[in-house]
Amino acid sequence: MDNRPIVAVVGRPNVGKSTLFNKLAGKRISIVEDTPGVTRDRIFTEVEWLNKYFTLIDTGGIEPENDDIILTQMRNQAMLAMDMAHVIVFVVDGKGGITSADREVGLMLRKTNKPVILAVNKIDNINLEDNIYDFYELGLGQPHPISSANAMGLGDLLDEIVENFPEGLNTEYNEDIIRVAITGKPNAGKSSILNKILGEERVIVSPIAGTTRDAVDTYFEKGDQQYLLIDTAGIRRKSKVYERVEKFSVLRAMSAVSRADVVLIVIDATEGVTEQDTKVAGIAHDEGKACIFVVNKWDLIEKDNKTLGNYTNEIRDMFPFMNYAPILFVSAVTNQRMSKILDTVDKVAEEHSKRVSTSQLNDVIGEAVMLNQPPSDKGKRLKIYYGAQTGTKPPKITLYINSKDLTHFSYQRYLENKIRENFGFEGTSMQFEYREKDRKR
């Protein structure tokens, strides 16, 4: 099982939670802005410390006595993150001092009966360290002085986090396992697909939308390949998510996508592509996952010799940013083409982790530049000196150029198409990074 420890970062607005999240994640994921309430939704990332892996959740701020609708939603989301978490990091403002809101949040946290680590942020120098003693009043144990902005005290904080993981959780990362999230709208047949893949009734299947309330991890092997299938509750429109349990399902679904290597985007053939399907796919695409469209209930569609082509075109039109993703038309009820799902998972997972040599890549880039010159602006033309693949899962291409100001998305798309023509990368998004390199001519 891939039951990864979950750590939630909570606290009232503008205490530095997102800055701390970004430092621990090692990259800028949460929007950091000096305005309370900027981070409204939970954001997930995987963090590694001393060879231990865990999922980190950033949350909106908690203001217990504020009835503003946005702040109320943020409070509810943070409470959901606390429900999920194995360890909670409570961030307070060491410069501003303890507030009544901190006391209320501290009371909420004590009631969770979960390990809570009190991080006193904005302790930027030794003269401020005495500020931490006031926070003993919260009854949450020893305060940990940190500075998220300056990365001070974060090693000790991470040590404390991993020491508080409950026993029985998996903190290792196995590169050999392909993690597959089965996601999509409620009642599209995700659980039925999982059951067919496994060949047994592992997940309760019901025609009532939203039966699967939680994400369910199922580990299995086929031949020499190991898989972890993550069946999720459907991601619904936020305006439709009223019950707390439904909000919890949305949270788990997004978490499942963040943990996956491959995401199956299940579409109900009888409903066609909907706006909600595009949002589900957008989450997976933005996360840089390998993706497969699985059009289920294909047995219920009346067909002629144009049906398959028309449906394929509709999907391509609705998802122009995901032309790389294969489309499978299946029926979990009749078993039609179900065997192709795992075969396609294997293929896109391999493409997701593919690496090409720098010399081969530059041959393709050089030919592409000769066929179609890069854009120019005010007499200055973009020059691409060379490129290199600098990452996998998803494949990341770094281009060394003369000026970032001359780059244009349309030319990047042209280069991506040329790279795909030569190297494949089917089923996975690609990332491009530009680095300016001085070259005197």
From TrEMBL:
- Residues the record lists as binding GTP 1: 11-18, 58-62, 121-124
Highest taxon, organism lineage: Bacteria
Tell me which residues make up the EngA-type G domain. 5-169, 178-353
Q: Which PANTHER family match?
A: GTPASE DER
Q: What does this protein do?
A: GTPase that plays an essential role in the late steps of ribosome biogenesis.
Assembly and interaction partners: Associates with the 50S ribosomal subunit.
Protein name according to UniProt:
GTPase Der
**Species of origin:** Terrisporobacter mayombei
